Amino acid sequence: MRPTFHGQRALASALCAALVLLASASLAQIRLPKVFGSHMVLQRERPIVVWGWARPNETVTVRLGTNESRTKATASGTWRVTLPAMAAGGPHTLAVSGSSAVRLDDILIGDVWLCSGQSNMEQGIAICDNAEREIAAASHPNIRLLMVPNRFTPVPQDDIEAAWKVCSPAAIAEGGWGGFSAAAYYFGRELQQRLNVPIGLVDASWGGTVIQTWTPPEGYAQVPALKDEYRRVLLGSPASDEHRVGMARFLETVERWIAATAEALKERKPSAPMPTMPAELLPPSDVQHATALYNGMIHPLAPIGLRGAIWYQGESNRSEGRLYTERMKALIGGWRKVFDNPELPFYYVQIAPFNYGGNPSVTPEFWEAQTAAEAIPNTGMAVINDIGNLADIHPKNKQDLGKRLALLALAGTYGQKVVARGPTFKSMKIEGERIRVTFDNVGGGLTSRDGKPLDWFEIIDADEGGFVKATAEIDGPSVLLSAPGVKKPVAVRFAWHMLAEPNLRNREGLQANSFRAGDVPKRDLLTLNVPEAKDYRLVYDLDLGKLGPQVRYDVDRHADIRGPFDRIAYMLELTLPSGETQYAYVSMDAFTADASKIGLPALSSGAVFRQNVTNMNVISNVAGVVPGMGLKGGNIEFWPNNYGPPNSNSVPNASGEKWDFGDEPGEPRDGYGCMQVHNHEARQTIFAINNWKAAGSADIGIGNRPTDNPDWTFAANAGTYIAKRLRVLVRMK
């Protein structure tokens, strides 16, 4: 028989009631966050905090070993107890009971370490050195593993989907990016073997992420240098007063719009577009947004007891320089706050040498920022400039890395008398033509890692030249530095390059860290290398990194040149990715009396010159560029036009097929653009700047281009230089 309408309604009501009862029963179950689980490690020698959920106002009893605590759940169903500190040992059972019960078995009491960062922390054991052998040997029942799933969220989460595992070959190799974090595992293995206590490792890492996303609001609040970022964090947090005020203002705007739109509708008039919520009020919505990974991966762990944290991150913040020190203060201070551990030990890894591209000094400046973070109490940095891989941003030797982190912990946290750091800069003293650099943390003495002379030391003279390679001799805890031609050394730098893999270490096998010291004199290659420059006046100074459709000089003094001039000079400086600066200086008899036409020959300048120049002086540090005074074979090609290779001016030695020093301008006038100075007698380009409207794809070079067109046409290489500068000068009569 089919049920009647009333019967159907009764059946539906009964089903709804049953579902409500089931849901209520589920909500009423005693529940722990998954940072707690069978096989976990709880922190020894600290009060043990346990928390979870139950029925509102329900009495909850928590028992661990012989310790017991009872509490009452809040009206929202949350509860928390604190059990007495316990010594290392186990296994124990954690039992939580009320209207239902939870039992967790095989719990050890030991040390718990939070292991976090980006890809070099995430990198699993299966894709690191000796993977097969290391995995097969990974049976360590007193090491326990918890891998936090990658998750970013707009607001702090209360739980994760993860489970503790006993360290075994199967457990260490599964999940993540090639298994459990290799850096964390080798660190934990070293501690467990040396201390003989259970070790719990919590792997919370995500490749390619910035430090900001791991930092809690409490951390931003502690660092004045990040006050603007803290304001943005608060505005995007629904829990903050700042967000509520901002949303209230936005709602007022919306209400006014609704009223105005209703009135416009009534009067059949057009209405304004609906207001858009300000972006600053939106919570984190991307993995790189501030607090996003803290919300999803760190907050659910707190306030579990920790012995400390290890951190391997920085590649994604490498260009920030000293600001990273402030970010480290925020991260460390924030974690110490949320884990209720004001002195939480924090050990981290110096990013490895690698060809990151761009200015090679950016990386050592970042190393300097990482080093400065060691001033934060209870921190330490593992230097790894000898175990990186210049061809791989993810070095696979995580065994030595883990040991170095463990040494820092053994010395700093466990008070063991071990040498934990490599040589670190202490002081610099000038001794005549030498510099003495004295180091701390020399251990059993300074030595060379490979038995070769010490490398990557550079010094600079007070009066001339730049940094030059120094001869370095070990003298006790010091290194004495000297270099030919440096009579008055005033500054030193060590391993100051992104590719630096120095060989200075102590006899315990720990590497020296990069540093710089002394007062570096300001250098101008023009005044240093061009004696006649003192007789010239600057007319234009142009940062060629700012090239584009419009020419915007950094200095433009052509209007100040009121008297006649008899010579014009050009100084082009190009800094290569290696850090070396190439330059070419060329001066010549004036080819025009109009100072407005001697700069970059953009269409607006009206400059078009296709002619020989006389009495050319050339000075350059680029191999192959012919130097000399009063050279006769000079010619210039300055125009805004497109141009081709026909040698219609019959320039000696020029090709009619390749773009070189005998080209011909054509249409359109506002075209590709050419600014070239040549020595056709020597069959070479002295310098060229072409296609400047293309900015980073402009053509710029000194000397003949090694391939294709000698005058750099179509090279599209401007973006390969770290820095590029053109100066134009005149000599007044």
Question: What is this structure's SSE topology?
Answer:
Elements: H1 5-28, E1 41-43, E2 48-53, E3 59-64, E4 67-72, E5 78-83, E6 89-97, E7 101-117, H2 119-122, H3 131-136, E8 140-147, E9 165-167, H4 169-173, H5 182-195, E10 199-205, H6 217-220, H7 227-235, H8 241-266, H9 292-298, E11 308-312, H10 323-338, E12 346-349, H11 362-372, E13 379-382, H12 398-412, E14 424-431, E15 434-440, E16 446-448, E17 457-461, E18 468-469, E19 471-475, E20 478-482, E21 489-494, E22 504-506, E23 515-518, H13 525-529, E24 537-543, E25 555-556, E26 565-575, E27 581-589, E28 609-613, E29 616-620, E30 628-631, E31 634-639, E32 642-644, E33 664-666, E34 674-679, E35 684-690, E36 699-702, E37 723-732
Parallel strand pairs: 1-7, 7-10, 7-11, 8-10, 11-12, 12-13
Antiparallel strand pairs: 2-5, 3-4, 3-6, 6-7, 8-9, 14-15, 15-20, 16-22, 17-18, 17-21, 19-20, 21-23, 24-25, 24-37, 26-27, 26-37, 27-29, 28-31, 29-30, 31-34, 32-33, 34-35, 35-36
Helix pairs in contact: 5-12, 10-11
Helices and strands: which structural class?
A: alpha+beta
Overall form: globular
Computed over alpha carbons, the radius of gyration is 34 Å
State the helix count: 13
Give me some keywords for this one:
733 residues, globular, 11-stranded mixed beta sheet, alpha+beta, 20% helix, disordered N terminus, single chain, 7-stranded antiparallel beta sheet
Architecture overview:
It is built from 13 helices and 37 strands. Helix 5 packs across helix 12 (398-412) and helix 10 runs parallel beside helix 11 (362-372). With 733 residues, the protein is of the alpha+beta class. The strands form 8 sheets. Strands 1, 3, 4, 6, 7, 8, 9, 10, 11, 12 and 13 form an 11-stranded mixed sheet that branches. Strands 25-24-37-26-27-29-30 form a 7-stranded antiparallel sheet.
